[in-house]
From TrEMBL:
Protein name per Swiss-Prot or TrEMBL: Phenylacetic acid degradation protein PaaN
UniProt keyword list: NAD, Oxidoreductase
Keyword Oxidoreductase included in the entry's annotation: yes
Residue ranges occupied by any Aldehyde dehydrogenase domain in the UniProt entry: 85-494
UniProt source species: Nonomuraea deserti
This protein's GO CC annotations: cytoplasmic side of plasma membrane
């Protein structure tokens, strides 16, 4: 197991330093990449779970629970062992010493083996992600598969680099009168304790894998608590992890599944005195609750934010509109990185097609989205389905918030007639309506806002992000001075910035090993995926010394 993955780990370690493009796992679902019949076998594996108890050898109460329903209109009917929180924690604590003693290298290489096996079951996972999140299949395969796996490997690399940044042993000699003082010293990485990963509904693997693998690689057992509507992708993940750990001679209780049907298990686990690390992605309300109440643990949260676009000018009118239209439409805006507030000077902007008034900018964006999603069969492969009724309610309520620039519509899915699908709604609101645009409207809801100037737009970006947080910000300008001002505004707000995106790179997508997801410098997140701060608090170094 170790030698097979050493090269992959070394490449990942180089990638987190160089920050250039590198991916360990191909994102194309083509048979040329993953082999003939892989897609069919993956779908069959997914379908074999439906309507049955999930095959997970893990103790519980003896009851089987589960209530997942696909956003495409299918009851999955998969059930999972109902956990006993104290039993999972005690088993994890018992498994910890041997995993700690294995050392950083053995743990890291075992984690890479887990990720490698996850990759080999990519089509099975893609179907599970699609039918628990509402993502279209290609997105489910890519974001839920190779992109998530790259983020897992990235976390392992950061963890390994942090654990091995200094020597594990040293001979210490200090000159003295007569014979020198000589000591033999050992420095052991000691895990913080049992970790809890609380999964989200929209990106169950992509958002859970960094915390899962950062904790596991640093020696901490992990309890995985999926969102009740998106259990299956993480159940498959836990199943694979337990298999690998057992084969390597470790206690499979190092990774356990804590499924629930919405009975508050996350709160029970997160505040348990033996839970020492909590990773959470989801609502601001619950994230804030965790930060206030899980005081015995290191808490990493990724919460809601108000992602902002500042438009000053552009040398690619069609490219800018096309790029923004795609970003607004992808997965129906159900991404923590999707743009929401689009700030445009009330006097309009200069473009390569001449001056455009504010109304022309708003109308141009509406037309670009309409063109992109004009064909239903094409549209649904980009938008996917709405993940829950709350998103639908926000879309339906959006017209009451201002002047509708683009109405949402309900495309019909050719394969899933019961899927709930909505295209983006765009609403014009005034700068004074901060109670509207100053909070997140998760889903395909965005606002175009006329400002007095680009400077005013950048000031508004600072204020809203400092107050409510954001995962992304974007700016368009032909002026290098304006772009410098935008960068300073982003630094002040603590948000990652993208400038002049007009091609195949989009503000709501980020590349592992190169792009930092979140910054930890504004209220939307406490850390970045991934930077050294994300892994450092998951372990301590304890020394022992004796005379040589």
């Amino acid at each position: 197991m170790q030698e097979r993955h050493r090269e992959t780990l070394e490449k990942a370690l180089s990638a987190i330093v160089g920050r250039g493009y590198w991916s360990a796992y191909p994102e194309s679902p083509s048979p040329r990449v993953y082999g003939e019949g892989a897609a069919e076998r993956g779908k069959e594996a997914f379908e074999s779970y439906l309507g049955k108890p999930f095959p997970l050898d893990q103790p519980g109460t003896g009851n089987w629970i589960g209530a997942e329903r696909s956003p495409y209109g299918i009851d999955l009917g998969v059930t999972y062992p109902e956990p006993v929180a104290d039993d999972l924690i005690e088993a994890a604590k018992a498994a910890l010493p041997a995993w700690r003693d294995a050392g950083p290298e053995a743990r890291a290489l075992a984690c890479v083996e887990i990720v490698d096996r996850i990759n080999k079951r990519g089509f099975e996972l893609a179907n599970a992600v699609q039918h628990t999140t509402g993502q279209a299949f290609v997105m489910a395969f890519q974001a839920g598969g190779p992109h998530a796996q790259d983020r897992a490997l990235e976390a392992v690399a950061y963890a390994y680099a942090a654990m091995t940044s200094s020597a594990a042993a040293a001979r210490w000699e200090k000159p003295a009168k007569g014979e020198p003082l000589v000591m033999e010293k050992r420095f052991t990485v000691v895990p913080r304790g049992v970790a809890l990963v609380i999964g989200c509904n929209t990106f169950p693997t992509w958002n859970a894998y960094p915390g899962l693998f950062a904790s596991l690689a640093t020696g901490n057992p992990v309890i995985v608590k999926p969102h009740p509507r998106a259990v299956l992708p993480l159940a498959i993940t836990v199943q694979i992890a337990r298999e690998v750990l057992a084969e390597a001679g470790y206690d499979p209780a190092l990774v356990a599944l804590a499924a629930e049907e919405g009975n508050g298990l996350a709160r029970t686990l997160a505040t348990h005195p033996d839970i020492r690390i909590v990773d959470f992605t989801g609502s601001t309300e619950f994230g804030d609750w965790l930060e206030r109440n899980a005081t015995q643990a290191l808490v990493h949260t990724e919460k809601a934010g108000v992602n902002t676009v500042v438009i000053d000018s552009t040398d690619s009118w069609k490219g800018m509109l096309g790029n923004l239209a795609f970003s607004l439409s992808l997965y129906s805006g159900q991404m923590c990185t999707a743009p929401q507030n689009i700030l445009v000077p009330a006097g309009g902007i200069e473009t390569d097609e001449g001056h455009k008034s504010f109304d022309e900018v708003a109308a141009g964006l509406a037309a670009a989205v309409g063109k992109l999603l004009g064909d239903d069969a094409r549209a649904v492969e980009l938008t996917g389905a709405l993940v829950n009724p709350d998103v639908l309610a926000r879309v339906e309520a959006a017209p009451s918030l201002g002047e509708v620039v683009l109405e949402s519509r309900a495309p019909a899915h050719p394969a899933f007639p019961d899927a709930v699908i909505r295209t983006p709604v765009i609403v014009r609101v005034d700068p004074g309506q901060q109670d509207v645009y100053g909070r997140e409207h998760f889903g395909p809801v965005s606002f175009v806002i006329p400002t007095g100037s680009t400077r005013e737009s950048l000031d508004l970006l600072r204020r809203t992000i400092k107050a409510r947080g954001a995962l992304t910000a974007s700016a368009y300008s032909t002026s290098s001075d304006v772009l410098d001002q935008a960068e300073r505004a982003a630094l002040d707000a603590g948000v990652n910035l993208s400038c002049n995106l007009t091609g195949g790179v989009f503000v709501n997508q980020s590349a592992a090993f190169s792009d930092y997801h979140g910054s930890g410098a504004n209220p939307a997140a406490t850390a970045s995926l991934t930077d050294p701060g994300y892994v450092a608090g998951r372990f301590h170094v304890v020394q022992s010394r004796r005379p040589a």
